[in-house]
Write a structure and sequence with these properties.
Blueprint lengths: L4 H19 L11 H11 L4 H14 L3 H6 L2 H8 L6 H16 L8 H4 L7 H12 L8 H10 L9 H14 L5 H14 L18 H4 L17 E9 L6 E5 L10 E2 L2 E4 L5 H13 L2 E14 L4 E13 L9 E5 L1 H6 L4 H11 L2
Parallel strand pairs: 1-6
Antiparallel strand pairs: 1-4, 2-3, 2-7, 5-6
Helix pairs in contact: 1-11, 2-3, 2-8, 8-11, 9-10, 9-11
The chain binds iron/sulfur cluster.
The site of iron/sulfur cluster (SF4) has 15 residues, from helix 9 and helix 12.
Length: about 350
């Protein structure tokens, strides 16, 4: 067992780098040195699995091959390219950042931590990942996967999600990043966390750093890392109104420009408070959104969806317009939409799910 911390760090770097050279995953954003493409990949990879991201990455770059094309595109086109990838604020941030990059940075992704972190959607992790991979800067990229590996290798028994511990783990990762090929080192850690040192059932027998991993040597790999107790995930009820006009077109609204699923389109309706009756609550939400009175009829469909911080159940009701003409009060826009319109509009996953459930009624 290698005891000395400096030696452990040295062996950690060398073995991980050698393993990465032989076993790295073949990923499309690793075949480019274009900072724009690396930036797009890193934002898409936030909270999202590699396999999910790959087809989106290709489609997005076909539609917006450089930062100028992205900046010139309407937000609705960017949201449409992002549809079903989730965490839609990322699409809005990328679009807003593209304007800043074009107008303030001459079309070049900024190359200092201070400057890149001023762009919407870029925090400490993304800044480290983009700058180390695209510009070879000696910076760590520390996310939950990297924290998990470090807690195991150094047998750290404090909660890894504790803010003070996060700072220590960041400093530890920073001390490990080598001066040569720092981007490869960060990507090697990403690959190790995704393929070997996984959250559940780490594959220690195939791990290149098993001989220096204190958790493995002490048989703590299934106990570490420790996390603070996660709070219970709240559950929210939502209702949607299915309102058709005489031509059979569906009434659709565009969500506000900020907040949950900003600027995406949906059926009228919204969240229903625990103390509210579902039908009355739906009438209120539609009134607040469109200034119309509706009659709520039969329930047509019900779907469930998990967001980052809560779970939702959405129920759709067959409704009729009783009084008033739609006005965009609590939404950006409204429209009567045909099935082909609905294919073109950017919608969130839960709204696509409820449409599919209604169509199968
Ligand atoms: S030896 Fe096991 S616990 Fe340690 S880093 Fe490798 S996979 Fe993770």
């Amino acid at each position: 067992m290698v005891q000395d911390t400096a030696k452990i760090k040295d062996v950690f770097r060398r073995r991980l780098s050698a393993w990465y050279r032989r076993h790295q995953r073949s990923l499309p954003w690793r075949k480019t040195s274009d900072p724009y493409r690396i930036w797009i990949s890193e934002i898409m990879l936030q909270q999202t699995q590699v396999d999910t991201v790959i087809p989106y990455y290709h489609r997005f770059l076909k539609a917006f091959p450089d930062v100028y094309a992205l900046a010139a595109a309407p937000l609705q086109d960017v949201l449409k390219a992002w549809e079903n990838l989730g965490y839609y604020s990322r699409a809005g941030n990328i679009h807003a950042a593209s304007h800043i990059i074009v107008n303030q940075w001459g079309g070049r992704i900024p190359d200092t931590p201070e400057a890149i972190k001023t762009l919407p959607g870029i925090g400490k992790y993304s800044a480290g990942a983009i700058l180390s991979i695209a510009y070879g800067q000696v910076l760590p990229a520390v996310d939950g996967n990297v924290r998990r590996i470090l807690c195991r290798v150094f047998a750290i028994r404090k909660p890894m999600d504790d803010p003070g511990e996060q700072k220590k783990l960041f400093d530890l990762a920073a001390a490990l990043v080598p001066a040569k090929h720092p981007g490869d080192f960060n990507q090697a850690l990403m690959d190790l966390g995704a393929t070997i040192c996984k959250a559940k059932v780490p594959d220690c027998s195939n791990c290149p750093i098993a001989s220096i991993c204190r958790a493995h040597l002490l048989d703590l790999q299934n106990i570490l890392p420790i996390t603070r107790k996660a709070p219970a995930i709240p559950h929210r009820q939502a209702a949607a109104a299915v309102i058709r006009n005489s031509e059979g077109l569906l009434l659709f609204v565009q969500r506000p420009a900020s907040g949950l699923l900003a600027s995406l389109w949906k059926l009228p309706g919204g969240f229903i408070d625990d103390m509210e009756n579902m039908e009355t609550g739906l009438q209120h939400r539609v009134k607040e959104e469109l200034s119309i009175a509706i009659r709520v009829g039969n329930k047509l469909a019900i779907v469930h969806h998990a967001y980052t911080h809560f779970r939702a159940t959405l129920q759709a009701y067959d409704c009729r317009l009783l009084k008033g003409a739609p006005e965009a009060l609590g939404c950006q826009e409204w429209r009567w939409a045909s099935p082909s319109d609905l294919k073109k509009l950017p919608l969130s996953k839960i709204d696509r799910m409820i449409l599919a459930a209604i169509a199968s009624c």
